[in-house]
Amino acid sequence: MKIVVAGKGGAGKTTVSGTIARALARAGNPVLALDADANPMLGVSLGVGFEKTDMLNSVRQALDAGEVEHEPTVEGMVESFGTDAPDGVRLVVASRIDNDSPGCQCCGVSPDQILRELEHEYRVVICDLEAGIGTVSRMSAGNADVVVVVANPTAKALEVARRAIEIASDVAEVVVLANRVRSDEDLKAITDVVGDRELIVIPEDPVIAAADRDGVAPIDLDPESPGVAAIIKLADRLAGAPVPA
Amino acid sequence: MRIAVVGKGGAGKSVIAGTTARLLARQGYRVLALDSDLLPGLSMSLGSGPDPVDPPLNQAAEKNENGRWRLRKGVSVVSAVKRYTTEGPDGIRLMQIGKGGKDGIQPIMGAVNAYYKLIHRLGDARTFADWAMVADLPAGPRQLAFDYAPFAREYLVVVQPGAQSALTARRVAKIVRMRGGAEVRFVANRVKDEEDVAHVERLIGEPVFWSLPADEGVAEAERLGIAPIDHVPESPTIAGIEEMVAALASLGGNSSR
Questions:
Q1: A32: closest CA among A44, A51, A11, A46?
Q2: How far apart are the first and last CA of chain B?
Q3: A47 at the B interface (CB within 8 A)?
Q4: Cβ-Cβ contacts under 8 Å, A156 against chain B
Q5: What is the ipTM of this complex?
Q6: How many CB pairs under 8 A join A and B?
Q7: Predicted pLDDT at A71
Q8: 3-state class of B78 per DSSP?
């Protein structure tokens, strides 16, 4: 099972990805969390910690630094360069851009390539994408089973969501998530764009806001707060198995 | 005034860039607004209307016999600003890389190539010596690393009081400083109180240059897709950006007058 999370920057992709990963792991699934953002911070919402997330090595940089002679397979890379997150989630960062001459970012280990080649028969792979629609537009069959599009009730985020839904619908099942919904009006703004599609609503939640403020995992702060609970419920549905409370 | 606005997605880059451009134009500057984001953003905050599906800059480039992109014959940075930009409110010229769609960036490859070549000539063009330039970069460090605002002398790094936003701010500031030639100015956005500012400063590990208040009026403008300066011209955020622009000018960010 491969789940990809897409949307505008700031829409809540990383929070959703990290919380789904933790929830699925708690339910007993082997989970690989792939951070495919060149500005990686999935570690923060997984509960790895603010400073540690900033230090995590990425597959791309490890290969550049010659830390492995010839790691021939994507699985080998995951094994060598991943890190352990709470609840047994394995976290792998594809690539990070952290200097002013980064060279080609797509040669060798592009996020879509890693995503395509990852083993996913026995585990759940959840992938947090870079902001926007770039990676989604390069996706082909086999990259993902489900694309979770995270939408917010702002004009810009909805425009991005509309494009992401249109593109992703060609290659995977699309689940649209209405995040930070504060009112019926907010919800209607999103429904107008999504049309008949099923919409999963994540209410505005001070627990999620507090978690982001301090750089901790929302699921560690309060798994029963309305926003976190809604994401856990989505994880449950995506896995097709009940998640224990 | 040569400004690039960078930071995490959702931090408020486009609102700050668009409003800054409008304010400078109203102060009498000729303003070139630069939008290199493949996603919509700046034009809404600027109030310049819907993004064209076929960006004018597509006409500025062609492929040579080897299939490599080049500027079309006769296209200079001066003629490009005249012909391949659109006009926004307050007389702003808007140069855009174009927006990605269902076919990715394939349909706008001409514009992407023209944009990159032109921005590297903007800094030296004497015609624009007294213009203000305001660039809105996409979320994160990618374009920064590939030098998508070489003309910029001031990088406004927008950060809101949160860990992810602060992590991004630290990373983008590091890249700007590696390259050199420009100042990094952290702008704390959507702060509710002094403690929010202190929180941002703790997370980034250095002082902020300016802070802008959380503002329901701007949030509403964002929901509606209207330029905040048109929707809530009297709001605290717009006033804050105006003060920030004045502070930048007095610091010598005013390269032209």
A1: A46
A2: 9
A3: no
A4: 14, 39-41, 44, 222, 225
A5: 0.92
A6: 137
A7: 65
A8: helix
Tokens of A205: 């939640």
- pLDDT for residue A242: 46
Proportion of chain A above pLDDT 90, given as a percent: 63
Q: What one-letter code names the amino acid at B73?
A: K
User: Nearest Cα to B208, choosing from B164, B238, B169, B253?
Assistant: B169
CA pair distance B150, A219, nearest whole angstrom: 42
Amino acid at A58: S
The string of pLDDT tens digits covering residues A114-149 is: 888 887 778 899 999 998 888 888 888 888 999 999
Chain A contact for B161 (CB, 8 A cutoff): yes
Tokens linked to B245: 């622009």
pTM (2 d.p.)? 0.94
> Is there a contact between B225 and A153 (Cβ–Cβ < 8 Å)?
no
The residue among B157, B139, B138 whose CA lies nearest residue B211 is B157
Instruction: State which residue of chain B sits closest to A208, comparing Cα positions.
Output: B162
Nearest CA-CA distance, residue B184 and chain A, Å = 15
**Closest among A144, A132, A138 to B103, alpha carbons compared:** A138
Q: What is the dihedral of CA B157, A135, A237, A150, to 10 degrees?
A: 40
Residue type, A20: I
Which run of H or E residues covers position B144?
helix B142-145
Could you read off the pLDDT of B50-100 as tens digits, one per residue?
999 999 999 999 999 999 999 999 999 999 999 999 999 999 999 999 998
- What pLDDT is attached to residue B253? 47
What is chain A written as a DSSP string? -EEEEEESTTSSHHHHHHHHHHHHHHTT--EEEEEE-SS--HHHHHTS-HHHHHH---HHHHHHTTSSS---SHHHHHHHH-EE-GGG-EEEE-----SS----SSTTT-HHHHHHHS--SSSEEEEEEPSBSHHHHT--TTS-SEEEEEE-SSHHHHHHHHHHHHHHTTTSEEEEEEEEE-SHHHHHHHHHHHTTS-EEEEE--HHHHHHHHHT--HHHH-TTSHHHHHHHHHHHHHHTSPPP-
State yes or no: pLDDT of A95 exceeds 90: no
Closest CA to A199 of A177, A182, A183, A219: A177
**Buried (b) or exposed (e) across A34-53, using 16+ Cβ within 10 A?**
bbbbbbbbbbbbbbbbbeeb
**Nearest residue on chain B to A216, alpha-carbon basis:** B163
